[in-house]
Amino acid sequence: MITALFSSVEAGLLYALMALGVYISFRILDFPDLTVDGSFVTGAAVASVLIVAGVNPFIASLAALGAGFLAGCMTGLLHTKGKINPLLSGILMMIALYSINLRIMGKPNVPLLQQETVMTMVTAQFQRVDAALAMIVPFAPKTWAVIVFGTLLVVIAKVVIDLFLKTEVGLALRAVGDNKKMIASFSGNTDRLTIIGLGLSNALVAFSGALIAQYSGFSDIGMGIGMIVIGLASVIIGEALFGAKTIVRATLAVILGAIVYRIVITLALRVQFLETGDVKLITAFIVILALVVPQMVAARAEKQRKARKRGAAVASTQADYESI
């Protein structure tokens, strides 16, 4: 059980990068970007092919990040210059990326088990630390490399995003999501900001895909199916549990939401009658709960507030009547 939860936190940290990308498009830009299902695989495909070709895994992962940025920019161009509906732009790009990803990989699946990856390199560097921890805490997990590496990456990504969204361009990006017409009235280039925002979003998604491929030991043409729902689930769960009043708090909530989501999935799959194929159903159920429960709690709190207000008004009227 401890090992399963530990693996969930590992995966959650790597998926948190993808969730941060979805947060930029979904919350900052208010853009329902379905490109994510394709760009996640694009990142995995580019990194895998380059690693198999002998390229350094860190450089391959950065190349995946660049490929994701280009994919996001293409979606932005379809929407801003092609005047295509945001949802349809993402769908078209997602479909196009399916064929592009097959072209990149040359086949539906690229195994990485025999290759040196970022994960194997990081794990090798932590062997002494793992051995020392195993002697101190015998029941602890055998390797902490992915946890430490994933935490470092996520913290760097969070800090960079927080700082970027406070710059002039970042503030304009946030304003485009809130009120595009107002920014246009101030002669702001909303098209360029939208393209940049979608590029950054999909760059993070593709980078996450590259790391997940190296963590799992393969890239597969179907590994991106439903990724947008997982990203949205992480964002919604994080905001519901940890709040999102400020950008710093919101990005932290998204990261924690991604980890909580993986833990919930792991715990749910340990239920006897649920199977691995039920992951999508569980994800949909979690998202529904995260959307509905806060509204029910808020409605109940509002109802109680109104009841208290009515009670206070009645008590005041009764006191006035008795004084007469």
From TrEMBL:
It comes from Anoxybacillus flavithermus. GO terms for molecular function: transmembrane transporter activity. Keywords: Cell membrane, Membrane, Transmembrane, Transmembrane helix. The keyword Lipid biosynthesis does not apply. It comes from the Bacteria. CDD domains: TM_PBP1_branched-chain-AA_like. The keyword Transmembrane helix applies. Its main location: membrane. GO terms for cellular component: plasma membrane. It is a multi-pass membrane protein. It is found in: Cell membrane. This is ABC transporter permease. InterPro entries: ABC_transp_permease. The chain crosses the membrane at residues 12-29, 49-72, 84-104, 144-165, 193-215, 221-243, 250-269, 281-301.
